[in-house]
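re: ur question from yesterday

yeah so i grabbed the chain u mentioned. its 379 aa long if i counted rite. heres the sequnce exactly as i have it in my notes:
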Amino acid sequence: MTGVTEDKEAKLGVFEKYLTLWIILCIVAGLLLGRFFPAFGEYLDSLKFHQLSIPIGICLFFMMYPTVVGIAFTDIKKAVRKPKPMLLTIIANWAIAPLIMTLYANLLLTDPMYRAGVILLGMSPCTAMVMWWMLLAKGDLAQGLINTAINALLMVVLYAPYSAFFLGVSGIPVPWDLIALSVVIFIALPVSLGAVSRKLLIGRRGKEWFDSTYLELVRKISIIALLLTLIVMFSFQGEIILNDPLLVAYLAAPNLLHYVTMIAITYTTSWLSNWDYPTSIDTTLIGSSSHFEVAIAVATTLYGLNSGAALATVIGPLMEVPLMLALVRFGLRTRHLFPRKKGNLKHEKSRSPVKEFDRERLNVWEKMFESKHGRSSKD
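ran it thru and got these structure tokens back, copy pasting raw so excuse formatting
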């Protein structure tokens, strides 16, 4: 039985070990498909339901479900009792990120259309794929789920006035149907199915089977969904990226600086706040990622499908995948630094094995003394 377990762990380790390679290969495959078979990308891009890409939506759902099915209700209750990480997420996404992205866009980009697209990305906190990055980074999924849900609700209220203020455009069309559909497909539906399937499967097969077999299966499915998502995403714009890489680099510059700045702010703040690693990586991932579907929809509606703003919103998420993967690896390599103040081990715990040994040895000595002298050693 031990050999089987070790074999499973070895296979999983190899699969995860080369995940970066699989991601690179899928990105290349998507670019080549978009470059040499542009009709393929155009066809996939045409498959939409209320401005939401159906292929990407399906893949994101299968990425989201494995991240929430393992969350117990007790974990969510514990996460609710920690409001400070939630507060940092809100401040990062809605007070700092829009200002930072607007600053970089105005400093680095001269075309107003490109600026508009980049700014729209900066005001769209991620509410879907970010949960998968938390899973990969070994974050607190219950805390991440709550923070993500709060962000989704705030988007409904804040996205229109923020866009109007930072773009200087009145009458911003808020894609209510897209936001609502995203909340249903990427939060409500996976969470509901996860809670139901978790209860049924644990009741029928047991907690051990659920943790060791089912969660590992859906985790592998989520990785496959990620790889398919990358192929689809990069096939949409493969021709543009390969034909004009300098333009892509030009539009990527403010996005890159924005990611680095937000990661530095949220990760450092979490470390200074003496939070544990899972909580810290959650706030960092949410604070630096974006909800590209909403940004693309607004840019397309405001400025047109072939506008510079629409192109800028598309380039952003193509950069985000390798950057988030790099952040995951950075987090795993630095998690030993959290929390900042480790605290001393309790003396009772550190000395308990020795005390137990001394107590047993003393009892043996007392019995030997009593049997030899006929009286207690305590007399």
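noticed a couple things. Confidence is low (pLDDT under 50) at residues 1-12, 344-362. also The chain is about 80% helix and 0% strand.
anyway ttyl
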